[in-house]
Write a structure and sequence with these properties.
mainly alpha; 119 residues; globular; single chain
Length: 119
């Protein structure tokens, strides 16, 4: 049992982090927009994510994985020709806004480490 958990623990936590960042956040926002969840759910969830981002290296890594996927999908040169320019522009603005928030949350040492990981 110990061998199984040591083998699959890290990959499972990596996938759960991505799910927590990408899927649950989208689900909470769409639920609030369609009045399926309370309107206060997104601010509470994003405060939770903000705290997780500040305290957990695995959550920061999950954000990087989601960003890498979205950058490859929505930004040139790897973006499909079917992606409208307004979608790419909006994504870049939202991404840069969130990066600025993330930089404000983390300290200067963590910001430097994250820049090195992106390169």
């Amino acid at each position: 049992m110990g061998d199984w958990s040591s083998t699959y623990n890290a990959p499972a936590l990596r996938e759960v982090g991505v799910w927590e960042v990408a899927v649950v956040g989208t689900w909470v926002v769409l639920g609030a927009v369609t009045f399926q969840t309370p309107l206060l759910a997104p601010p509470f969830y994003f405060q939770f994510l903000r705290m997780r981002y500040a305290l957990s290296a695995s959550t920061r890594a999950a954000f990087l994985r989601v960003r890498g996927f979205l950058d490859a999908t929505l930004t040139p040169p790897s973006a499909s020709a079917n992606v409208p320019g307004v979608v790419t522009d909006t994504y870049i603005r939202v991404r840069d806004f969130l990066v600025n928030i993330g930089d404000a949350i983390t300290g200067p040492e963590q910001q430097q480490q994250q820049r090195q990981q992106r390169q």
